[in-house]
Amino acid sequence: MKLDELLKERSGNACELCGAVNDLKVYEVAFAPGNAEESSIYICPKCQTQIDKKDVLDNKHWELLSTTMWSEVPAIQVVSWRMLNRLRNESWAADNLDMMYLADDLLNWAKASGDHESDGSVELHRDVNGALLQDGDTVVLTKSLDVKGSTLNAKMGTVVKNIRVVADNTEQIEGKIEGQLIVILTKYVRKQNA
User: Fold this and answer.
1) Torsion of CA 19, 14, 42, 16, to 10 degrees
2) What is the DSSP letter of 50?
3) Pairing, β 139-141 against β 189-191
4) Which of 75, 89, 142, 168 fits 29 for a cystine, CB–CB 3.0-4.6 Å?
5) How far is 21 from 187, CA to CA, in rounded Å?
6) Helix, strand, or coil (residue 92)
7) C-alpha–C-alpha distance, residues 61 and 150, integer Å
């Protein structure tokens, strides 16, 4: 039986974290030491984007962790612990963390993400006005820019289509201007509405 079929059966074809039933996918939990079935969960897009820190945490969405944290599936326990740690400033999350027990090997796996050491905030790519930037967006330059190592001067008002966000730096995006791929600082762009 395929992994996705096993997880569908295990989950009852619902998100194993929040219970949603639409657009579910197999998600491999980061830093997993075990086999694919034990280290994967079946989740919805909203859970995935928040786990991957690509969206701001929705505290109400995660209140179901008080139930799912008791799952016998190691990957669900680990993700529950990580998300509760990100939300630990909420009294309900702190209370659940106090009650939750993980065996040493699972606790080591859970701590590998570092979520217990951060404040749970999510840094996202935002334009000069604070609008969220994502791969494929179109932006407009708000300042004329000289491109280092090139004679190219990108003029204010230039439209840059199909941008790519730089994964490890929320202040940078990549885009093509006059056929040349360049890195652009997010503080010099404005998202163009569709």
Assistant:
1) 40
2) H
3) antiparallel
4) 75
5) 38
6) helix
7) 48
Class of the CATH domain delimited by 139-191: mainly beta
The mean pLDDT value for 26-53 works out to 90
Q: Find, among 50, 2, 53, the residue nearest to 26 by Cα.
A: 2
User: DSSP label at 132?
Assistant: B
The DSSP element (H or E) to which 99 belongs, if any, is: helix 91-99
**Quick count: other Cβ atoms within 10 Å of Cβ 99?**
10
Nearest to 79 by CA among 113, 37, 33, 35: 113
Distances (CA, A) of 132 to 8, 165, 170: 33, 11, 11
- Give dist(CA 119, CA 81) in Å, integer: 14
Give the start-to-end residue ranges of the domains of the chain.
Answer: 3-117, 139-191
On the 0-12 / 13-18 / 19+ scale of CB atoms within 10 A, 8 is middle
Number of other residues whose CB lies within 10 A of the CB of residue 65: 23
Neighbouring CB atoms inside 10 A of 88's CB total 18
